[in-house]
Amino acid sequence: MPGCYRLGWRHGLIEEVAKARDVGINSIVLFPKVPDALKSPTGDEAYNDNGLVPRAIRLLKDKFPDLVIQ
């Protein structure tokens, strides 16, 4: 999709969110790329505290506590 980029949860994500906040954006949506091997019919990876999304949310909330993440 044009204008969409895959960012690393440790590198790139913080910088992009900081740029967005600089222009007044305080809400983001995460669209993770979960490895196929972790996918299941019941979505078990969504409940993994050390999964990609929970780690990204913790990282972002540590840096930007008032950020709205959808």
TrEMBL record:
GO annotation, biological process: chlorophyll biosynthetic process; protoporphyrinogen IX biosynthetic process
EC number: 4.2.1.24
Pathway entry: Porphyrin-containing compound metabolism; protoporphyrin-IX biosynthesis; coproporphyrinogen-III from 5-aminolevulinate: step 1/4
One GO cellular component, as annotated: cytosol
Catalysed reactions, as listed in the record: 2 5-aminolevulinate = porphobilinogen + 2 H2O + H(+)
Protein origin, superkingdom: Eukaryota
Root EC class: lyase
A molecular function (GO) term: zinc ion binding
Keywords associated with the record: Allosteric enzyme, Chlorophyll biosynthesis, Heme biosynthesis, Lyase, Porphyrin biosynthesis
Pfam family, one: ALAD
Signal peptide (UniProt feature, chain positions): none
Physiological role: Catalyzes an early step in the biosynthesis of tetrapyrroles. Binds two molecules of 5-aminolevulinate per subunit, each at a distinct site, and catalyzes their condensation to form porphobilinogen.
Family assignment from sequence similarity: Belongs to the ALAD family.
Protein name as it appears in the record: porphobilinogen synthase
Species whose genome carries this gene: Hibiscus syriacus (Rose of Sharon)
